[in-house]
Structure formats: structure tokens, C-alpha cells
Amino acid sequence: MPLLTKSDVGTDVHPGLKGPTDPTAGAHTHSAATMVPDQSRAERTQSYAVADFPVPHGREEDWRFTPVAELAALFADESTGNCLDWAEQLPEGVTLTSMSVQEWQATGAPRPADRAAVVAAANSGGVAVLDVPAEAELTEPVRINLTGDDQGVVHGHLLVRVGRHARATIVVGHSGTSTYSEMLTLDVADGAQVTFVSLQEWADDAIHLGQHDVVVGRDASVRHIAVTLGGHLVRLNTNASYRAPGGSFEALGVYFADAGQHLEHRLFVDHGVPHCRSNVEYKGALQGETAHTVWVGDVLIRAAAEGTDTYELNRNLILTEGARADSVPNLEIETGQIEGAGHASATGRFDDQQLFYLMARGIPEDQARRLVVRGFFASVVARIGVPEVQERLMAAIDLELEQASL
Predict the structure, then answer these.
(1) Given pLDDT bands bounded at 50, 70 and 90, which one contains residue 404?
(2) What are the residue ranges of helices labelled H in 32-98?
(3) Calpha distance 321→403 (Å, rounded)
(4) 372 and 355 in contact (C-beta within 8 Å)?
(5) Which one, of 282, 307, 175, 174, lies nearest residue 224 by Cα?
(6) Helix 365-382, helix 387-405: angle, nearest 10
């Protein structure tokens, strides 16, 4: 029995290419609300200069789903001097230092790609630098917990560098309340294996905008995981690029939106070198009046990127009336010499037949709903691979469902 009820169902797999790598791939719904962007991702502005990004008005392709009227404070080119409270747990050999914004620019780090990110970078007052040494094999995760205690504007800036052939898991958590904008760079050297987890467990009034740039070295493997449960307005842009052939990038995401929440996730995977792979899977659930989620997945396969293998999937489960999920997968291909490319999205309502099936076997309604939602998230949660994150996530989902039933 299907979990989602679907309309206009179909999976986009491009002619001559192999099928999707995920057998659970859903649908890509074509409508006026999911139009093809008016320009290639390769043409969009990237710059260290604030002046290169006008203040958004909400009609731009990158901002058309976002309530920009609530973000004026994060578009203002002003330094506030505010900071979040930091608490870190660093395994032996891992260091946390700092550098100036100018030194960060000199490293050749990816440039900011929108107004909020460039303002955050320019006004952060400095860059926190987390270094995992070459050849390190960390047996415990690096943990950084960032907590806000008021709604003042904070500009955050973090550079994470992982050395050659290192193996590491890094968990960055956000909680409390703040109006927070961050620029984060994850630079992974050749042969390294990294799992990076970003947890958004904010209070109900928090605002969080972020740009996460992942640079994948030769034969390196990176998993970027976004878990977004809290906050009034959260918008994360995750961008991946490759320094040399053989790199692998996997992006996983889980989000659960309640009444009044806007949770937005945007992915851009830039395949610019040959023989690299990427796989994206995001799943979200929504409940409550005006709950709104946005997922936009852009993949660009440039002419030089022969041998690319890529797939992206987004699925959304709407639990109540009044919730809205926008899902827009985009794929640009400049060469036919690739291994495979495809994308899919599906959005559907809670399947009452499945609920009836469980209740007919003696399972109370609240438990049956919990089982259905747990089953929906199970495939992506199991792939996170960080037990403490998986347990916290499933406990948080259970709590969301319990509160909705009160």
C-alpha cells in the first residue's frame, strides 16, 4: 500500500541515461509554480563584495518562495558585534583557531552567492577555523553547539578543513533564539571521508539563513546532513563542488514544519570535473495551518564533467490541511558522456487507507500515525550513520506528533 497519494506522477530520467539509483523515487510535478529558472546556475552572481548583491525584493528566482519582508535586518550591511554562545568538544588533534575575513578570501574559498551570505561574511568580524589533521581517524564526533539567547542579529563564519585521508564526523547544533546568518565552508582534502551534520533545533521565534559550501578533493567522500526541526524561518543553501576527479558527495536532509514555520532548503551540486558522483535525498513532513517548506535542487553537469553520476530526490508528506510544500528539482547537462543523471520529487497527503489498515489490526490511531510517519522518514534517517543524531531526530518527530494530537 503506497505511503503517498500522488497526482501527475513521473520520474525524470534523461534519455540514454541509466535509471534512478533509488528504487523509491517519486514524482516530479510540472506546473506554473515549478517553472524552469530564467538562467543557468553557472550564470548567477558569486562575489565577496556586498555591493554586487542588491537587496532582494522577492521576485528574484532565488528568493521567490522566501518571505523576504522578514529578513531586512539580515540584508543590512552593518556589523552588530553580537555572537552566539559556543560550546565545543574536540577530539585529540583537532584544533579551533581563527583568521581574518581577508585571509579567508585569500584561501580561494567559494564566494557568497546571495545578499545574506555576503553580508554575513563581510560583517562576521573574523572566521572560526576548525582543523582536522591529515591521516586522523576520529573515533568520536567533533561537536559544536551554538546557542542564542536573544533575537539580536548575529553574523557567523566558520571554515572547516579536513586533511588528506582523514576520517571525521562533525556535528554543529543550533538552539535557543537569534536572528542568525552564517557563512560556512567545508574544505575536504584528497582521500578524506567526512560526515558533516547541521542540526537546526531553534526556538519558535528564531530566524536562520545559511550558506554551506562543500569542496570535495580527489577521491574524497563527503556526506552533508541537514536536520531542521525548529525555528520560525530557516533557509539553508548547500553548495557542492569538486576539486579533482573521483570525488563523492551525498546530501541528506530531514525537516518537519509546524504551523507558522517556513523551512527552506536549497541544493546546488556543481559537477565541473570528470568522474565524480553525487546523490541527494531530502524528506519532509508538514502539519498545521501555514506550515510551509521549500526544497530546490539544482545540479549542473558542465561540459568537462564526463563520467558524472548524479541523482536527486525530494519527498514531502502533508499531514494536515493548510500546509504547503514547494519542490523544484532542476538538472542542467552540458555533455552526453556521463554515467547517469536523474531527479524526482513527490508531494502527497497522509494516506488514510494505510492508517485504517493499521487501526483495523488493533493499533490505536495516534500510534498508527506515528508508525506511518516513522516509516516515511526511515530510509533517510537510517543513512545518517550517527546514532546520537538518529535517536534525537526520531524522538523529536515523535514529540511533534504528540503535540499535534493534544
Answers:
(1) low
(2) 72-75
(3) 16
(4) yes
(5) 282
(6) 150
